[in-house]
Amino acid sequence: MLRRLAWIGALLFCAAFTSRASAQSFEHSYAVVIGIDNYRSARFPKLSYAVKDAKAISAYLQGQGYDKVISLYNEQASKQAIMEAMQNSIAPGLQTNDRVLVFFAGHGYTEKLGGKDRGYLVPFDGSSQSASYISMEELETQSSYMGNARHQLFIMDSCYGGLLSETRASLVNPDVPNYIDEVTRRFARQVITAGGPGQQVLDGGPKGHSFFVDYLLEALQDGLADFNKDGYITFDELSAYLIPRASNPYQTPSVGILPGHGAGEYLFNSPATRAAVQAAPSRVTAGVRRGGDSTPAAGGAGPGSAPVGGDSVEVQVAPAASNAPATGNALRQSALPLPRPDSDPNWNTGWKYFSEGDYASALALLERCAGQGDFNCLETIAYAFDNGKGLPQDHLKAVEYYRRAAVLGDVKAMTELVYRYEHGFFEIKKDLAESLRWLRAAAEKGDGMSMFRLGEGYEQGVEGLQQQDLDEAVRWYRKASVSNDSAAANNAQIRLKRLGK
User: Fold this and answer.
1) Which helix (H) or strand (E) segment is 489 a member of?
2) The whole model's pTM is what?
3) Taking a C-beta distance cutoff of 8 angstroms, is the pair 339, 94 a contact?
């Protein structure tokens, strides 16, 4: 991709490595892993990758030595079963030196109650009433029930999951020599979600899982989030990797904390470092790596120093991922953008017809306002071509409409083109030069994540397209750090700190 980071590793002697590993070990590691493709209610469309994602995460955690992994798939994942897994199976036996990870893949839901947006995870038996879902307040309660555990991590691969988290900067300086020991000692209550409020999460990614889980496994299983090659992946590194890597026009991962957080960081071990230890017992060498938030490279991952083995529930490894480009991606609880008061009346009416399934009436109005250069109309027609709604499915036609909107200055359309040309998705030939062109245009329009990503391009350079220029990198990071995109701003602040700016 456009982001490539190179980090020069340090030479670590085995004695020091062993000391730090034992310092951050946990007595027991537990997980609850949930994946739902098929819902009882027809209100929630069938998904293709949620169960596969959950099984891959379950297998990964078991391979990392988690003592107990409770896996709930499809009809097993009723609301009662999910709550019982946390409250009755995990919580009663937890001690201070334990940790818990909860992973959910499936549909999410949001509604406004009491003047506030209320977010939910939808269990298998979720009905048309939100009382049958798992509210974010209920998840916070479950977190408190599991409060004896020193570290907790919630990973939500669903839309609207971002309503769970409250963002807060780390209180521990990552440059201190005993950083790993310090963040291990402190309590951690952390959350990372595939999408924020009002977004939809892509169900199909380029490697055989959801878009989010593709890059979560890349970060952990392949170790690409081990930026400083110290043998550990902290939550801070994981989020710094995932937010730009797994972002696209439909979703931006979100991070945050829950009540009880004490500035700790959930930790994973680096497989690259483990391999180095086996190859050269006297020392661990982490050489120059090329990786980062967009281009795969070697690295490290895996949960902290938990004992290997244990009493896992269901050991099931997901099939090898395909490297074939995606030709179509479902959205987890997808929805059209809502009409706005300042929109062209033709679009507002056209949107109403479109959402009701009257595509002929909708498209007649949308073509009219698209001809007048209305961004919303152009984007909605592109959506219709992408999804075969009232028009023959034609991804190339969709790109034509996105390009028309982008030329007129529509940032959302620009980022859509960045994404497609970057990955070669939706029948579009991969073209990094074209992707970079639209990334720069979106950044110059003030899009926070585009400014951050352009900064990354300048930080490490893009072979044959853009020379390394740290001054330009800092300039774009600074712009991103004060943008209204909280994810981009947080990541940019982290990068500036690492560059000493």
Assistant:
1) helix 486-498
2) 0.60
3) no
